[in-house]
Amino acid sequence: MRIYSLIVAIFLLIGCEATPVNNAAMIKTKLKLDERATTPIQVPVAYYVGKKVPDDKVNFFGKMEEAAELITSEMFVSSENLTSESEFIYLIQLHSTSDWDYVWGGWESDIEINILDRAGNKLMSRTIQKKAAASGGLYDFNAVYNAFASALKDAMIEFININIDEILLAQNNHKNGVKLEDSKSIKDLFTNLEATNSGSGFFIDNKGTSVTAAHVVNECIFVEVNHKGNTYDADIIASSQLLDLAVVKIDYANSKSIAIEPEPSVQLGKQVFVTGYPLSGILAEYPSLTVGNISSRGGLKGAKGYFQFSAPIQPGNSGGAISDYKGNLMGVVSSSLNQSMMLKQSGTTSQNVNFGVSTQLLKQFLYKHNIAFEEKTSSANFESSSANAVEYSNQILCYK
Questions:
Q1: Is the preceding omega at residue 40 within 30 degrees of 0, hence cis?
Q2: Can you tell me the distance from the alpha carbon of 56 to that of 292, in angstroms, rounded to the nearest whole number?
Q3: Contact call for residues 395 and 284 (beta carbons, < 8 A)
Q4: pLDDT tens digit string along 116-155?
Q5: How does the average pLDDT of the chain come out, rounded?
Q6: Hey, which residues does 292 pair with through a beta bridge?
Q7: Hey, which CATH number is domain 197-399, 3.30.460.80, 3.40.50.740, 2.40.10.120, 2.10.220.10?
Q8: Most buried residue among 167, 218, 228, 324 by CB atoms closer than 10 A?
Q9: What is the pLDDT of residue 337?
Q10: What is the mean predicted confidence (pLDDT) over 277-306?
Q11: Would the CATH topology of 15-188 be identical to that of 197-399?
């Protein structure tokens, strides 16, 4: 019995890994595409792969995304992973859960596929059970990817065949630039979706315009701003991954905004405080404040336009305001020194080595994108400045 168990274990761990398919034509199917349809179909689509799974299941999120990209890019003229800026006529919502069959081997997956048009009408809904013959054992993820791609190809052909008349009409309208008048927002195409991550932001005017870090809103399918217990739909009106800055806008007239000086300067040793929403779901739902000093006038490896500060920050602080004790903006929280990297390279960890984007660089970013803000100087004391910070700070919620 021990020998048998050992053989099974070896087979699971070191079997021959499957060869991944690299084009849709490699996938055999019994379904035949309607003769009126010519691929790639001249309509744009977007796909969304859900991340949430029960604790006892496995979610091959990345493999499902790869399979969706392979199949949809070959069957439609334009295909992309859904973001808040996606333009599409059909949305393909995907969700999968998988279990390993310890008796016969192989991954068994339940794949849920919903396809909606821009008006929110559900055009097709399927749950497909697929077995991945993983000859490479428990870690043969290529077999899972191949199974996903096969299921998606079948589903796409079925979708096209069932809805061929509507698809041809949509193709013609898209070619002629006809816009759907009843198209819904991306948020309205989803139900019971929870924020996957969050960050912080702050108002720069009294019209609901907030600055945050670009990595907070990167690849979100939609963004919300939570301010003083109320949540508002937000539009991303500018973003730069290079600078790690973004601006979002909500329909809200806020009473306070941060003071942005005409000639801001970063002074070594200057006392600063950070306001934001760290560790969402663990700490309080109202803003937290920490204090420290500006410890270097350069960013990581001396990068210009950034600075180092010592006020403690946690996940969720990104995008929050770094202010001096008078309430003037010094910069935007961007990152911390990676502790795992430090431990690996130097054998020790760092303490409160954090980096911010300078106000001067932020102002250049705002000017470039024609985003208006009021230049003003605050001379308030620390107590008044911290009280104001609670009023202009907000939480940025990202849904992926």
A1: yes
A2: 43
A3: no
A4: 999 999 999 999 999 987 777 788 889 999 999 999 999 9
A5: 89
A6: 272
A7: 2.40.10.120
A8: 167
A9: 62
A10: 81
A11: no
Comparing CA positions, the residue from 72, 150, 70 lying closest to residue 111 is 150
Residue 11 DSSP SS3: helix
Predicted TM-score (pTM) of the model is 0.82
- Identify the burial level of 148 via C-beta atoms within 10 angstroms of its C-beta, where 0-12 means exposed, 13-18 middle and 19 or more buried: buried
Residue type, position 99, single letter: D
**What's the average model confidence in pLDDT over 46-60?**
89
Q: At 299, list the tokens.
A: 């960013």
Please report the DSSP string for 51-85 in residue order: ----TTSB--HHHHHHHHHHHHHHHEEEEEE--TT
E-assigned strand segments in the chain: 41-49, 76-81, 90-100, 107-117, 122-132, 197-203, 209-212, 222-227, 230-240, 245-250, 271-276, 288-296, 306-309, 321-324, 329-336, 354-358, 393-399
Q: Rounded distance, CA 393 to CA 200, Å? A: 7
What is the model's pLDDT at position 342? 45
Nearest to 69 by CA among 24, 37, 34, 131: 24
The C-alpha atoms of residue 294 and residue 32 are separated, in whole angstroms, by 66
Whether residue 6 has pLDDT greater than 50: no
Residues sharing a CB contact under 8 Å with residue 221, sequence separation 6 or more, in sequence order:
48, 82, 83, 84, 86, 186, 187, 190, 399, 400
Phi and psi dihedrals of 112, rounded to 5? Answer: -100, 130
Token representation of residue 210: 């907030």
* Residue 233 near residue 227, CB atoms below 8 Å: no
pLDDT-derived band at 301 (thresholds 50, 70, 90) equals low
* Closest C-alpha among 181, 141, 157 to residue 25: 157
pLDDT of 77:
95
Tokens of 202: 């702050």
- Is the domain spanning 15-188 CATH 3.40.50? The answer is yes
With H, G, I as helix, E, B as strand and everything else as coil, classify residue 95. Answer: strand
Residue 381 half-sphere exposure, CB side, CA atoms within 13 Å? 1
Domain ranges of the chain: 15-188, 197-399
